[in-house]
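Pasting as-is:
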Amino acid sequence: MKWLNLILRLALGGVFIAAGALKIIEPAAFATSIGNYRLIPHEWNNLLAITLPWIEVAAGLLLVAGIWKRANALLITGMLVVFLFAIGQAVARNLNIDCGCFGTVEGRKVGLFAIAQDVAMLAAALWLTVRDRD
C-alpha cells in the first residue's frame, strides 16, 4: 500500500506542478482560457489566472514532498471537482474551446477524454485523501 500511495502522490503531484507551472508562464493566455468557459464574471478571470496556478504548484509540490499529504490531496480533490464541473458544462453547452489545463502547451479541447483524465486523477486524489495515513 505504501508503494501505491507513493506512486499516486508523485504522479498526481507532478501533473499539478507541471500544469500550474505552464499556466504561470502565460497568465494572459490562461485568463483567456478561463473566460472561454463563460462561468465567472469577466473581471475575475485575471485574478483566477494569477492565483490558481500557484495553488496548483504549491499543492503538487507539497504532495510530492509528502508534507500535509491528506490536506493537499483534499485540496487537489476539490480543484478536480471544480475542473470537472467546468469541463462538463462546456461539453453540455457544446463549447468548442481548449481546456486550458496545461496552459497553451497542450491545446487539449474540452470533451469526454478530458473528463476521463480528470476522473482518473480525482480517483487518485480521493484514494490519497482516504487511504494515505502515514
